[in-house]
Every structure is written in structure tokens, then in C-alpha cells.
Amino acid sequence: MSAHDRDDPRSGIAAELAAITAEGRLRQRPVIDSPCARTIVLVDGKRKRLINWAANDYLGASQELIVRNGAFRALRSYGAGSGSARLLAGGLRLHRQFEQRIAKFLGSQDALLTSTGFQANLAAVVAIAGDPQDAIVLDRLCHASTYDGARQAAGQLLRFRHNDPTDLELQLTRCASARRILVCIESVYSMDGDEAPITALAAVCRKHRALLLVDEAHALGVLGPGGRGLCAESGVRPDLIVGTCSKSFGSQGGFIAADQDIIELLVNRGRSFIFSTAPCPAAIGAAHAAVGWLRDHPDLPDALQTSIQELRRALRAQGWDVPEGRSAIIPIVVGDEHAALALAQRLRDLGHHCPAIRPPTVPAGSCRLRLSVSRAHTAADKRKLLKAMAVVRGEPSGQARMAEETA
Which residues are catalytic? Predict the structure, then answer.
């Protein structure tokens, strides 16, 4: 490296980007010139309408008239922005109404609204484990937001093997002297779509007097009685439930539901809540309406479950390695980055938007397509996807994958 390069603060950035590209890990921002609905118009040199298998709008709520009207009413009443952080001048009556509605929906004493689900996890972990004598114990496959919260928190970070109550118990014995222990899991994991053994994990937490945080982002609206999530289905009442408005509620925002004292602690210690502008009114107006819509139509997840199971069975019948499961997330693991990108491009050519998922989102060697099923997808959408999957399965790259899977 020359003296000039050492003096240049941007030296090496181009080389780093080149290395990311060579690894097949370069990320680019897709441009969509349409609502993010069951079909989208992707602008990639030319406009192309594709069936969208990448969104997390599991119930199709974002396009429901009752949800859109909720956004319109909030926009008319409160304007475009909230203007400030909640603790200054940005706390709207609408924000509090949403917190009360989601708390009642989940059977909690109270709830706290944040600008995103990512910020909800940050606020919860930082506030609860805010002392060096605290400990945070994470499932190894927890979301990046939970890991970032643990790194920002003062407490010691430990990890346990994915969905393994025995290893969780081992880690809890290692931090038994901690002032406070927070265990973080997800009810449904975002890349594999598998469910946590919540009952067993909660029992271990009770035994070791650890607080339990369950991120229900991918379960609400999909699983449990009336779409209330896996905790409600399991009869488990964790200390904190984290959720998001950006999936089954078709909007944007995050929340934590818990007992009153925990919520008050988060109000006073949750940095990502304290120092962020409050969510815009339209987003929360939509989310408020969506929760009411799901409450009044508890059978909505049933239609989604039927669609999920039909598609899983059909993909397995074609020979794809699709796991059993109930979540709307269907992973199709391909292997390396270049193979995943090639498969995603081939499906795009055939009319389907299924982006490749690559490191650091998933471990190296487990790159995949992540199909996300929505109640909005039609029978024709699924037939077209299955036809496209059969086509790519029969092509040379698909035949190579079949040989690898049966070796």
C-alpha cells in the first residue's frame, strides 16, 4: 500500500466491494414501481410484473380497504409526521390507542410502541440487561436486532444451541450469579421458518429464574388462536413479547407487550425508544385497524394455513427439500451464493420474485430462496410458481442439485 493510499480515508473501499462481489454477496436495492402486494412491478432495466414471494405481508393486510382507510384517517387527523420523540412532543393519542389494543389482543397488561421491530428488540434487551452484572442468553439463530441489542447492552452475552433446552440450561448455570438473566428466543425463526419448543424453554427459564423474551414477529397472524401467536397456542406467558406491525399487520412499527413495570422500565431505559422520532401517524393508523380486523376475523389464519400446506406438499412432491412446518416461510436451501443467485434470476425470468438469501443473513453454504406465502396469493399464483419450480428443477443446475441431495 502506498503512502497516498494510507492517507486516503476511503482507501480499500473499492477493493472491499470487489471482494464482496466476487463472493456473490453484493447487495443491491431493487426498485419496485407498484404497491408491495401479491404482484409487483420490478424496474430492472425494464419494467416487469412479477408474482411476489418475498414480502412478509402474510395476511395481505396492507392492501385491505379497512387497513388502508385506517392509514387515511390517521393522515387526515394527525398529518404526515409525528414531529418528535414520544417523550417530547411526538406522543399521539393514536400511539397510545394502538398500545392498548395490541396489549389487550395479546393478553398483556401494557405495551410499548417503537418505530420498527428492530428497535423494539434493541429497546427491550438494552433496558432489561443494562447492568454489567446482568446476562443475556440468546438462541444462536436469533435475529440480528436481538444480537445488536445484546452487544449494546452492558450484560454478558451467552448463546445456546438452536432450539435446545438442554444447552439453554447449561448456559443458565454458567451465569447463575448474574443480577438479572434475560433469555431471548423467537417463536418462528425468520430464515428456516421452524418453531421454537416454547413450553420446554419457558420451563427452563422458570427453573433458573430467568426472564423470557419471545419475538413473535413471524407467528402473529399465522399461528395460535385467532392469530395470537405461538405463546398463546402453547399456553406460555413470557415476560416480554416482541412483535412488528410490518408483517401480518401490513404496516410499519414495532412493539413490546409486557407487565406494567417492565413497560415503565423500557420507557425510561430503552434507548431506541427514547431517542427516536415516534412512528408516523398513517403507519400506526393502519396497524391499529389491522389488529382490529384480525380480532374481528379470527379465522383469517385458517385460509393462510391451507395455502401454506398445499404449497409445501406440492414442492416436496417435485423433489425439493422442503421441511415440514406451519409457518408461512418456506426455505429452499441451494448451497452457495452463485447457485442461489442463478436460481433466483431464473425464477425472475419465469415471472416470480424470490430473491436469494445469502450471508451474513444465513451461514455460508446455506444460501437459499425464502418463499413467503401470503393469504393474498391466489390458486393461479401457486400453480404458476409450481410450474416454474418444475422447469428449473429439470434444468442442468436443478439436476445437479438433485444429484447432490441424493448422494
Answer: 56, 143, 186, 190, 215, 218, 247
